[in-house]
């Protein structure tokens, strides 16, 4: 049950959104995004309005302005309570005012209050933010312009003022109101740009120079903005370490963050070849599955879209089949309450896997709201199993209202586990999904659109099963007279193929920046190999051009987030940390939890009396019509239970594999191959046992027909080959049984 989140009039009618214009400036691994929304008040009186919108958790809002008719007002950053007082005073005086503030419970939700928009008047609001671009499994960099802000479930008894005011709202683009959307992206990179892809129609990429390090691409006209707009940027040599040095502001105070130069390092530590081939056979794997009502929504708005819960069930089945023998595991389902399959984690065997497979297939989105805090508390209260590192896999559509409480809990238990999180469907909270992985030294994945959840989840399982680099130290070698102050939090863990972005302030004076170099080393330890890994990058202090203070603002955002976390965990000294956050936020002009953007336009106007009104909009999308109510979820499940889609033969094959890695010779396996059991056994060599023959045929089928899904079944094949070798033991293997599963 969602309500409109555009501008709303006193008559409970939306102020029509006429256009959205987005400009993206991508520089390597980071980007600056400018969005302008054009509204018109068609009422006969002045209105006060509210606009709630999502933003990536790793972003920092750095500019806001509003244009009424021909006059533009640029907002400034002030301490939040002071900004709210100024806004209220302006309304009571009949002045036009704009207040833009971050949610108190989740850093990926912002609220814009627009006061006193005159009748017949147009209003253009522009906000600019800087953000890091996330790395995907295929090494592309992803930019996402979200269309949906899912309702955030707040557990009973919690009081989250700002976030509760954002409950059950959708972004303006998702309302059924005529408007236009334009998006243009300007790309630049130290390495050549290979290509740009999107699930939305794009105009051909226009390269702006001969070496293809600069390019331009635009969204085709007529896009309805009924789904997230995603761009995937592919650079050549994307794993090559890079550094961008950005000069400080000449008018800023020397020695301050904005007055000094700042550097951003992009590092991909090189792993020994032995690391990528190692697979651990130990570990405690805890799978935490969101079963709230919203998980009955479809993955996307396109044709043949699966329900989120169904996709999650299939993925969980794949994970179970891919676990190594001898490990431990457990499964939790949560909604308004939670339940676990076992009182504590059990050893992985054929018996325990058989016990859970049928229960997994029957899992439904029937457990009410989204309360993730309590199951996590129960998991962390369980004693760890010696020699079996705990790995927690969390699947959720990210609709919670107590994000900061959850992140604090994960952070306080970071020494006892690693957390791998998965945001399912459009609108999942980036603050929750990314935050849990960062605090738990794991990895985050977002599954949107027509993405196959299985391939992304299996990448995280590879990270969990392979050795990681830990005990990481950063070592800097700087010229005489200079020093380095780190602005980003320490890097805790790195997996093979994972990027590390490091921000640092360069203090001191030197004569000639162009002739000086700094060397940065990232040194870590791989415990299973008993060896160190070193990544070295030397770079010039010559500042880059036309960066627009993007690096400074992202560095400030990184430091602000660290201070906010310290403040949340600190007993004494909270006010001092709060003051430091406000000072840095105002100095850098970026958003924080303790500041807000305030703009006041001096002029005539009539203030709106009474509370802010919102209007329900029926029929937004299938996802928006479902609340986290167990009754509604059960009804929805019952109505859709008889809608059958063709079975996926790969999932059928996966479901038939035994815990040991083998397949049994049975008619259901033959059906996957499109054969009868007689046809399958007819050519079986006399000296070969049926189970071995079935397993060989399954491997041949995977290699012959499902190589495009290799990432999904790789661990199943490793287990199968291992089982074949152990079954034959001292017997020589026929050549047909020798497989390359790499």
UniProtKB/TrEMBL annotation:
Domain VWFA: 284-461
Superkingdom to which the source organism belongs: Eukaryota
Record-linked Gene3D superfamilies: von Willebrand factor, type A domain
Start and end residues of each VIT domain: 1-131
InterPro entries: VIT, VWF_A, vWFA_dom_sf
PANTHER family: VON WILLEBRAND FACTOR A DOMAIN-CONTAINING PROTEIN 5A (PTHR45737:SF6)
Protein known as: VIT domain-containing protein
Originating species: Electrophorus electricus (Electric eel)
Phylogenetic classification of the source organism: Eukaryota, Metazoa, Chordata, Craniata, Vertebrata
